[in-house]
Amino acid sequence: MRPGKELVSERHFVSLARTDTNTRPPLRCRNQKTFMADKNSKQPENIPGKWYVDTTCVPCNSCMDEAGSLLKYSEDQSHVFFVKQPATPDEEACAQRASEICPTGSIGNDGA
Ligand code: SF4
């Protein structure tokens, strides 16, 4: 076998990437979210409670499919906010899923 290569079939080799973990930053999965909602920047319309949307909402509508009964668009359609706090385990799961799919990390839970 060739040095630095891995046999993947009888006729094909692929290069093995050098992995020097001391000098390279950790690789990130493309879908790995690096944003977190900021509880100090909550949309003012959020109904009081632990779940909130912060001011980074774009809005993209993704969360409405998961938690449309809990969220509402602002009058000028510039963002969404929590119009209702989850009251059941199912609604809690909906809010959690909405926060997980939010591409900007605008949905937070401060545990209040
Ligand atoms: S998924 Fe996030 S960015 Fe998109 S509308 Fe909902 S809160 Fe806003």
Explain what you see:
This protein has helices at 62-67, 89-101; strands spanning 5-7, 13-15, 51-53, 71-73, 80-82, 107-109. It is α+β, with helices and mostly antiparallel strands and 112 residues long. It has a domain at 39-109: Alpha-Beta Plaits, CATH 3.30.70.20. Strand 4 and strand 5 form a beta hairpin. The longest helix is centred in the C-terminal third of the chain and has 13 residues, at 89-101. The radius of gyration is 21 Å and the shape is globular. The model is unreliable at 11-22 (pLDDT under 50). Iron/sulfur cluster binds next to helix 1. Residues 53, 57-63, 80, 102, 104, 106-107 line the site of iron/sulfur cluster (SF4).
What's this model, at a glance?
This protein has helices spanning 62-67, 89-101; strands spanning 5-7, 13-15, 51-53, 71-73, 80-82, 107-109. By secondary structure, it is an alpha+beta fold.
Q: Distance between the terminal alpha carbons, to the nearest Å?
A: 59 Å
DSSP helix count? 2
User: Which regions have little confidence, pLDDT < 50, spanning 5+ residues?
Assistant: 11-22
Specify Rg, calculated over alpha carbons: 21 Å
User: On the 0-100 scale, what is the average pLDDT?
Assistant: 82
CATH topology annotation of the domain at 39-109: Alpha-Beta Plaits
Strand order across the largest sheet: 1-2
Ligands present: iron/sulfur cluster
What percent of residues are in strands?
Answer: 15-25%
CATH class of the domain at 39-109: Alpha Beta
